[in-house]
Please model this.
Amino acid sequence: MAETITIDQALCLNGRYKEMHCQRCRDHCPANCIDENWQIQSKLCNHCGVCVAVCPAEAIAALSYSNRELEHRAAENPSLFACKKQSRESSWPCLGFLESRLLFALVYKGSTLIVDDRACGQCNPAVHMQLTNAIANANRMLTFCNKNVIQSGDKAAYIKVRGKAISRRGFFSEMFSAALETIREVTFPTGATIERLERQKWIATYLSAMPAIRLPENSKVFFSMSISDACQACGLCAKLCSSKAITVIDLTSELEIYHQPVQCTGCHVCVTHCPVQAIAIGAANQLGKHRVIQAKLPRCSSCDQLFQPVDNQRICLECMLKNRLQTGGC
Model:
């Protein structure tokens, strides 16, 4: 079956938010196969998966990078991550889809992770460089947290991954399932499901339940949010955050804004759309949910009552409507 990769325009930040001009997939694509209309030119695409790794909205889906395969690999211990050129058991054409946050989460939850990237340098140097950086960044955090590091490069060659013992019944069950899958693919070659690799769900599943995790300074892998005193307590950042990294608590006269770095993808939607430019995104040094600011609601310049603005407005909605009625506006 032909491998397919596509960008879901309904999920892409540029399609969902008028002010967004995200270029991550295009900037990082080694094959330069993503055009100005955010369409992947299949003749140029080499299915390296780098675009899958860098997209903050998880808008890029492929037949080759599925949650099912990742779940299968993560269930093994030690877990061997290799492309199908290196391992016959792998369905991944490349390891470019791996990124630091996902690698860190997989190891932090208790897995021993082996990434066989020995052939990457000759196969695709750009992917090899990105993968090397991803492993190095993850290992720096794991070392700081006193966890086992990811084995890669020449070290991966000396680690034996034991095959899972399988019973006679299990053998025939797996063979029957594989036969059914083959029949399905041959019979319905155009009916394959292009599945998004939900990296963020994996990261949150393994890390959100953990107590606050300290990270080394300037790790630049997970993201932290800061809000200045210019905040008008409009709560727009929480309403626009598709990853649920920003939450608010209404205290009647104040608004508490919380941020969870584990959930944050660093998409900068909140930064771009803040009406008073009060938000900044930087490197996180801890992964626990925390209060960013307790912002006071502004007072209406007309009636002096506390109100929650929709934008950078100075009067409440009630006074705004009253003024329109008095001036004959619609």
